[in-house]
Write a structure and sequence with these properties.
By secondary structure, this protein is mainly β. The protein has no helices and ten strands. It is globular, with a radius of gyration of 13 Å.
């Protein structure tokens, strides 16, 4: 099982980034997927969860209206479109398999929002 995130970087407040997660080693279309993040000095926090068929069923209130999660099962890829980024969004972002714990996740990609 492998989850590889990409697309992180440094942006100014109000900017946008799109994260991608390419999955391999398992049947991607059979699993719910999620994004989680870990800010400096804090624990993992779930950002969003999407069903195996692409239905959203959880979005963290802090990102609702700014972040959008979609998936492309034909490409085994999960995406996180992040708009109007704020300094509080600075964190390492992880792609997570499943809608439960964070056991199966990628190595993470750093997102830094600062002026």
């Amino acid at each position: 099982v492998q989850l590889v995130e990409s697309g992180g970087g440094s942006v100014q407040p109000g900017g946008s980034l799109r994260l991608s997660c390419v999955a391999s080693g398992f049947q991607f279309s059979n699993f719910d997927m999620a994004w989680a993040r870990q800010a400096p000095g804090k624990g993992l926090e779930r950002v969003s969860t999407i069903s195996n068929t692409g239905t959203m069923y959880f979005t963290n209130s802090y990102v609702k209206g700014r972040f959008t999660t979609v998936r492309d099962n034909a490409k085994n890829t999960l995406y996180l479109q992040m708009n109007n980024l704020q300094t509080e969004d600075t964190a390492v972002y992880y792609c997570v398999r499943g809608g439960g714990d964070y056991t199966v996740r990628g190595q993470g990609t750093q997102v830094t929002v600062s002026s």
